[in-house]
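Margin note from the TA: students keep mixing up input and output lines. Inputs are the sequences; the output is the structure of the whole complex. Example:
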Amino acid sequence: MKRLLLLLLVAWLAGPPASHAQSPEALKALTDLAVDDGDKREAAVNALGTSRDPKWLAFLGALRDGNVYARTQGKTVEVVIGGAKSTRGDAELIEIASAYDRKPLGIVPVSSLTEIAADRRLRIAIKPFLDADETRAQLASRDAETRRGAAVKLGYQADAGAAAVVEAAIAREPVERVRHALREALALIRLAHGEAAVRILAAQSLGTLHSFDAMPALQTLAADAGASPAERDAARQAIRQIERWSLLVRTVETVFQGASLASILLLMALGLAIVFGLMGVINMAHGELMMIGAYATYVVQNLFRTYLPGAFDAYIVAAIPVSFLASAVVGAVLERSVIRFLYGRPLETLLATWGISLVLMQAVRSTFGAQNVQVENPSWLSGGVDVLSNLTLPFNRIAILVFAAGVLAAVALLIAKTRLGLFVRGVTQNRHMAACVGVDTAKVDTLAFSLGAGIAGLAGCALSQVGNVGPDLGQGYIVDSFMVVVLGGVGQLAGTVYAALGLGVLNKLLEGWAGAVLAKIMVLVFIVIFIQKRPQGLFAMKGRSAEA
Amino acid sequence: MSTYSRRDFLKTGLAAAGAGVAVAHGFPSILGAQGKDPVKIGVLHSLSGTMAISEVSLRDVVLMAVDEINAKGGVMGRPIQPVVVDPASNWDLFAEKAKQLLLQDKVAVVFGCWTSVSRKSVLPVFENNNGLLFYPVQYEGEECSKNVFYTGATPNQQLIPGAEYLMSKEGGAYKKFYLLGTDYVFPRTANKILRAFLLAKGVPAANIEEEYTPFSHQDYQTIVGKIKRFSSGGGACVLSTINGDSNVPFYKEFANQGLRSENAPIMAYSVAEDELRGMDTSALVGHLAAWNYFQSIENANNKKFVNAFKEYAQKKGLPGGAKRVTDDPMEAGYFGVYIWKQAVEKAKTFDVDPVRKAVYGQTFAAPSGTIKMHEHNHHTYRPVLIGEILKDGQFKIISRTKGLVEPEPWSKYTSPDKGCDWVKHQGTYQKKA
């Protein structure tokens, strides 16, 4: 049975669909389907499937989805495909169409039909026909990812007969990574079914292709006492090659993952480094400012979807400045209305900003609802790029990495090179002296605070692309943000950068080794010990700081 | 505790006399019902805190069932008066509020809890005061309380069928299993049972991987990388008990690193329609979930239920309004109220012990089809369904058991020697070898 199905599958993958329409066998099979006899029904499915006719395959698909009905007209039973349903008054109506060419047959009450239910047995019978058809369609798809998925699937199945199809596909494949997957699939098929000489060649080529998928098969071959020594040697050689490659891939992967986590930590902590690090305000509402940035992104996304659906993919570009401004404005209002009265009183600031964070969360909950909201990735931020074989780096993470670097550069320039940056540094180092030489310290405070808030907004915008957007988004990140700033050393932007990088990579190294739960605990323990030994953080402010 | 003043006595007396007169004169009995005291029931679901996202919907659906029953004359002629309390996702508060419901409000029955830890925390309260709790969520089993009826799935009604489906020819004959969960009691116990099941089915230990993440974990890069290496060579799938909003980053990362549902499907045990409401579902499409109910079930009862809930949400001005969806725990919460009503009517009293005995073997035409309460183990016979996630956050049902599956609170894979029986035994008992 299985052999037969395999042969059928192969025949299908190779041959063009035959176009003998409604043959008498097919029609007989159709009436058999309506009979309450498991064997007959299964035979009917096989008869329809082997016709290789796309229209019958579509019919089988409808059968599997439970959209096929039997209609009794006088003495004859007609099999029809059901479509859209509607209700008129009490009666439920359904559009029906003929089984083969889907000619519309009008709208009838559902009660006049009996559903031909596809039970488990029938669905198992249908599956290979549809799968083979699907794989064939996928190999011819215009989307490279779909073609690659089909290639991987063929490699997994390693059916001897599929080799010809794969060879043909390699010849016409324009995209390198899909060709790579196809070559891998071909070698896997040959490894499973070829002669000894072919298998040696296949093993060698799998080695040079660095095929992770071949590892189980190669290991079996290397341990197979029945195989020739040359075969086993080739397999062992290939395994060594793949393992070396695997080590390289894992190293690159861990470094990238660490850098990606670091970029997110950096974005979160950068705003806080200004507000807490430079200004000394313990802002517990920092996380909520991120949340506002994320919700601003959500609003922009919805506006684009409604008014500019054609340019939907570009919404994120518009969302960046909007989220910055939204959080910066909220930050400025906070500073003017509450925080400026509390400078130099850290305990009161802590309590007040914590209260503010609750107010902000509840405000968002009341406006947008307690449920998380959907922020969709633009299509160019979905998926990933294959840097090396078996190493895919997601686009959204690369984008955030670049974005974080850009924000960092902009902030560093702003603080180091501009007049505002000079004033900020001056005021934070010696407020009274700065005031004496004519700096409007109140204004500088407001600007610096809203700058920090705006950067939090940018972080929120970036986070919306990798995580959830909900009212308590900020809660999950506030501890990490403080951790980075404290570890880096208060009052230093550079310290924040190094701390973010260090924590990111350390976390990912530990996670790969000990799992996510333990890694988190170990990082916290490490920080506790570190702060004990070096309370001033990685980089301490040198020189005469104003109020120490 | 209760004070019965002379005025109350007069009132009840008059009402009873009035009712007597009404019946004697052949008035419809509903008029008599209005004269009777309402019967109080408790609703113990978190309306604030982290669990509010899931539990608020359960309160809504219980109150809807109460409204429906009251509109038809109440239970034994007495209208139901729900007492809604908010345990605020705080486990200690759950026990406190349960005590208040049982001792102060003297409710006849309580509908409530979601997380296992909240259920464990109220358990002694119900057992010491002989209360009655209907618990509507699928859970890890290994419990058999005299004072609780479990209307959600036991492990053999959800976990095992989900894994079985993936092992079957129809499901894709997968051979390697990555058990991934959030780090708390349900995933830990679920994975213990799944592992025992897989080993019993001849899956080698090397083909089973187990991993946990903290609550609201967001960064799934490393884990997805591991799954990718695990799945090389094909035949691998993921059995996920990841809870709540960690699912979005997980599925996103999964898709972005190039893993596809055709080659490595994820079977989720904690993702239902209500959770999918707040998610960008594009990365989830094609992955699977195992439940006892989906909103997409086609039958007249379910259609009525779904429409009634949407109408109810709109009428009461609940957030989401007509866009609200129904899911498995909501269905279990809903039919729980009706099971209790039928049992009370059978026992002809609101007292806990007779009602408890009357629940055994009770059937009800629920939205998922006719379900049946177990004859002696306090759980529920339910159908098991496998669904595929669609873009609109609904499920396409791709597999369904024939008939109902018997609940097994003690999994035969981890505790083969234990059984649960409140008729012939006193709860959990040792089976004879």
